[in-house]
Amino acid sequence: MTAEAPISLQANDFQLFDIPEQFKVDSALISQRWKALQAQTHPDNFVAADAATKRLAMQWSVRVNEAYQRLRLPISRGAYLSELRGAPINAEDNTAMPAAFLMQQMAWREALDDAQGDLSELEDLADQTRTLKGEWLSIAEQAFDRDGDTAVAVGAIRALMFIERFSKDVNQQIDALTDATNP
Amino acid sequence: MALLQISEPGQSPDPHQRRIAVGIDLGTTHSLVASVRNGVAECLPDTSGRVLLPSVVRYTGEGSGRTIGYDALSGEAADPANTIASVKRLMGRVRADVHNVDNLPYRVVDTAGMASVDTRAGEKSPVEISAEILATLRFRAEDSFDDDLFGAVITVPAYFDDAQRQATKDAAQLAGINVLRLINEPTAAAIAYGLDQHSEGLFAVYDLGGGTFDISILRLTEGVFEVLATGGDSALGGDDYDRALAHIALTQGLGAQAPTPEALSAEDKASLYAAARRCKEALSGDAVQSATLACPLEVGDLHIEITREAFAAATSALTQRTVQAVRRALRDAELENDGIEGVVMVGGSTRMPVVRDAVAKLFGKAPLTNLNPDEVVALGAAIQANQLAGNHSGDALLLLDVIPLSLGIETMGGLVERIVPRNSTIPTARAQDFTTFKDGQTALALHVVQGERDLVADCRSLARFELRGIPPMAAGVARIRVSFTVDADGMLQVDAVETGSGVKAHIDVKPSYGLSDDQIADMLRDSYATAEQDIQARAVVEARVDAQRMVLATQSALDADGDLLSSADRAHIDALMVQLKGVEHSNDAAYIEAQTKALADATEPFAAARMNRGITQALAGKNLNAV
Predict the structure, then answer these.
(1) N or C: more exposed end of chain A, with fewer CB within 10 A?
(2) ipTM for this model
(3) Domains located in chain A, CATH noted
(4) pLDDT tens for residues B183-216?
(5) Does B48 reside within a domain?
(6) CA quadruple B526, B531, B536, B540: dihedral positive or negative?
(7) Which of B195, B487, B423 minimizes the C-alpha distance to A46?
(8) Against a cut of 0.95, is the pTM above it?
(9) Any catalytic annotation for residue B25?
(10) Does the annotation count B466 as an active-site position?
(11) Is residue B486 part of a domain?
């Protein structure tokens, strides 16, 4: 048996997609690679194959989807990259954040409570979170890809997780309101 | 005399290798079977030239015991209690879950696992009733090709949950059909539409059938159909519009003393709904402003005019439910309305102007209606079936579909911990760690649920199983990894393992609603579709087919990538192939199976090497054109 390709199911997401192991990625390339890999591994290609091949195809196809899901979004990609660099995020256990960031979070929560039912205030909040998200994304990119400062990068990913949760709550209220006003 | 077949250029050259594969749309109101012939997908007609088969089975108590399709439909008004229409609504459901159950003209009862219909021929499960419809379509296909069916792609509403999908697969098995894949109805429609129009970009498929509503948002690029989000309501369809119309017709026709449709006799109910459906269809005609709803009833004859406006007012709440589901799917896909290239309309109920107007208003553009909304799903399924069976040799199409509903586990306090979020691309596997609640706890009860709500009580229960034999530890020390695997049919398997001790438990999620293998075997024995076939003979035939399939699969793998093998490995595989071909005509099923397995085992490392080569080529961009 000549092993032509060294790629295994254990390869990390970046290796599997053959892209540089860094925070900044080319989304179009990831999506293109995902489709190319699925074109090879998807179980639909093996309906008439033997059971072993079917099982293998299923494992690979699942693995490709898993990697795509993780690489596609910056937060999961950042958390994964932190883990690869030996500094897991431990989002549940470790919520220590700078005091200034926590103060801002509290101010936002209060603003969200006050904005109940006011669409323009809610949309204003959504804009603010979008801006802040962009700032933290640049901090993460700088720390991961240029400074090699994993500690700063991990902090940035954690901040992004907070922001994501908050913006989800804001969007939920906006949705509820738009559903009610556009019956 | 049978004409000789000549294959199309680019199609499989050897007619004996061409496999008969069909797409089946098993609908609430009617069902269809389609196949790709001479490179074109077309619906197969019955001997009278009709492509639609009403999804109706009537248990007559005479002759063969039942009639199916138009014959059954014609007996509906006279014998409503034994004429089962819209059985799709009962699939994988218990009685309490069936929408409007008391309003059905036949009697629905609870039996083990699933609701059944109490007929003069006894209790019939929705799986058995659906199998009658599927078998009728299978025979239609086999008669059309004068050959056995290799397999079928069967469509299901995208919003069908695990239990409903399992019930559909069980019905196909009962009808003697090899299911190549279950695919979602809107996705099938997108295939038919996208290939027909050579479209690229973002598309919405709005599918309002007789009893179900689906919305899917897809991205089409170079033969790849990527589903971004899907949603809908598995208990909302054209039948509900009929009922809403029947309701206002009674009030308008009989005045304040009018009974509700629910209070009518079964016969009256059946004729009223049939009259309402005719009136609705008449109102869907071009430039029709009003239509007559006439029907004789025991409580007094109805004869009234229904205007378009009255119909729109009576049904606007139903249309709005679909609009809200569309909005949610768009949010899930993280898109804005204006990004949508086209909106494809599927299902007979999208002929209603009230529906078309609402969709046009929502998306800001007229929906696409150039393909027959009744046929488009079956045609797409046929195209996919043809490809899965290996008949297709042109550019491959790739379907990347998603699961419609989140899957999770019950945790303390009746809360749901989501493990696979909705709209995850399938196949997928996700795992999460859980722990014990009490000191010394040695077993863990796992309850698998499906749905978007936070409380278990608001979600659908799929299965319960137990992990036993956990070594006693302090509370919170055990690490139980629960893994969910969803295959390309959207079906779930769950595994649990205590990572310290390695104690394992596994379940294929079906016992809650699906049928056990024993039940299936019993039904197969009773089923007319297979009555002539002796179980033993069937086993031999299946073993032979598997052996042939294995030889063909191995040969095509060797032809493509034989250079990956050392000469010794190659010689070993060649020898096993010769051996397997030698026993192909044996009558000993076990012996054939053993030889098949020997070849399968020997080719396992070869399969792994081939997969690696494919992946390497994909990354090198060599195969990008084939994507």
Answers:
(1) C
(2) 0.83
(3) 13-72 (1.10.287.110), 99-181 (1.20.1280.20)
(4) 999 999 999 987 666 778 899 999 998 888 999 9
(5) no
(6) negative
(7) B487
(8) no
(9) yes
(10) no
(11) yes
